[in-house]
Amino acid sequence: MANHFYIYLSIILGVISQLIIKWKMSSFTFDSHVSIYDKFLFVFSMLLDPYIVLSFILTLLAGLAWMIAMTKFDISYAYPFTMLGFSLVLILSALLFNEPITWQKIIGLVLITAGIVVSSQSI
């Protein structure tokens, strides 16, 4: 079970990275920039935001954790666990950003969880 730490670390770091990007991007409006030059400046300014940089670093660390996990598990076993990221993002986006949780999302979450349970039995 200790080897699963790297899978979970990869997922958690990836989810945190995505939540940071959503948080920071919610304060920007891309559509208000009309010309291509304005859009380029806008995107470049986002890349200089310290929180966006932090999210890139977290994504890199998630990738490194995944690389370690790949030395310990078959990808066909480990990859279904990445779907936990979808579940965490769904729940945390509702809590942090007041995004709606629809019945379709709940059914999807149940199917993802069932898939993880079934596929994890193959170790």
Chain-averaged pLDDT: 89
Q: Give the H and E element order.
A: HHHHHH
Give the helix/strand class.
Answer: mainly alpha
Total strand segments: 0
Helix tally equals: 6
**Biggest sheet: strands, sense, closure?**
none
CA-based gyration radius: 17 Å
Note the main attributes of this structure.
mainly alpha
Question: Topology of this protein?
Answer:
Blueprint: H1 4-25, H2 36-47, H3 50-70, H4 75-78, H5 84-97, H6 103-120
Structure description:
The protein has 123 residues and is mainly alpha-helical. It has one domain (4-120). The protein has 6 helices and no strands. The protein has helices at 4-25, 36-47, 50-70, 75-78, 84-97, 103-120. It is globular.
In short, what is this structure?
The protein is mainly alpha-helical. The chain has helices at residues 4-25, 36-47, 50-70, 75-78, 84-97, 103-120.
